[in-house]
# Entry
Amino acid sequence: MFTRRAALAGLAGLAAPALLRAQPTLGGDPFTLGVASGDPAPDGFVAWTRLAPRPLELHGGMPMTPVPVGYEVAEDDDFRQIARRGETMAWPNLGHSVHVEFAGLEPNRPYWYRFSAGGARSPTGRGRTAPAAGASLERLRFASVGCQHYEEGLYTAHRRLAGEELDFVWCYGDYIYEKAGGAIGQPAAPKRGKVRRHIGDECYSLDDYRLRYAHYRADPDLQAAHAAHSWWTTWDDHETDSNWAADRDQDGTPPELFDLRRQAAAQAYYEFMPLRRSALPLGPSIQIYRRAAYGDLLDCHFLDTRQFRDDQPCGDEFQPLCPEALAPGRSIMGAAQERWLFEGLAQGTARWNLIAQQVMVMQLDRRQVEADPSFWNMDSWAGYPAARERLLNHLKQANLHNVVVTSGDEHQHYAGELRADGADGPVRAVEFVATSISSGGDGEDQQAGSDQILADNPHLKFMNSQRGYLLCDVGRDTWRADFMVLDQVSRPGGNLTRRASFAVERGAPGVHRA
Ligand code: FE
Ligand code: CA
# Structure
């Protein structure tokens, strides 16, 4: 029978085939978690969304059936010049997340993308393709972010990040924190000193992690940062469990049982990040160390220092160095990733190399009072000094004077030099550590003991303990780093300022004020 409804559907179909099909009723807007893009290549990027009409309910309020999702990517934000259009399936197996890998797009330009499902249309996201392989590139700009504990601060930094002009965002990890908040279904009263509260107990199962990511990703400021930029994402410890190391947690859980938790954490991570199919987890394993080239200007080496590392030495946490830490074979990347990194560095021809990874590489004496003994962060590269020396030695042997390391995890900004032989030898590279988006709360410019740390570590040039992010402007000969800080994250409307700027000259490792 010819109905008015069918006629309307037919007309609509001429303009937008993705909206034509009979769709299940999804019981509300399924795009409450926003959109994201990531892993840009010269010819495309991954576009992500996840259907969840009620994001904090079991299954996001979705029926446990596959649901078709339409997608389109355009050359303009009005979608007049459509570059690609099609349909994919959101599978309940992946929590109705969608990862569309666009290909065949033009290099080094913005595109706009959106999705449709259940008669609803998603917000529009903007992605950016990488420059063509080997193309001459004058400059690029990226931000380094991470450590966004939901309870400890608002995502004002993400709101500001959304307004930056960037080629990409790199997230080093601690995208979620796994620890408990309030009971599910209970009013989420903030704890003392916290601005808001996690839902649910500590994460162990796939649904625990899914709920935690959904809670974070429902934040409009975080959604804005994802919608505005293409991200490269890696993880640190809190996407799974505090200070985990390969198949070990801190509680002495049997490794084969901890692997089950890792498996749940890895799947949830994949489901919520704009990752390529090549990162689909297999058991507890997920391939997220990878490389990206930005023309002839920058080779990015994104590391995973969590999944393949030896256990933290000397009892973990902040400790004096013990003989265990000094064992010559100790590794923070694992042998295969270390070989992959060294080969990539030696074979690359770009003006600059970025080693983008999680924990601080600098050897940093953390004592805050002169009378105290020296102690070190055993979860950072300080607990893996042999691995650090191998890396710096390789830079010397490969004759590389164009390496910048970016790190996070500390919830503090740092700028410093990576010197051989602990911290006493020649400068081999520069390290910029980005502070947290929210972890640690408002913080302060110079926390107690900063003077002592700066005095004890002459290779350290700057530290700050507020919230924010790191901006890097990479030119042909000069790499500039801006340390952005917020005056507060405990209340809305925090003010963002550039607290300090440093520069590195290509061919002459060392860092100076800019
Ligand atoms: Fe953190
Ligand atoms: Ca961490």
Notes: The two ends are 73 Å apart (CA to CA). Residues 462 and 468 are 15 Å apart (CA to CA). The chain is about 20% helix and 30% strand.
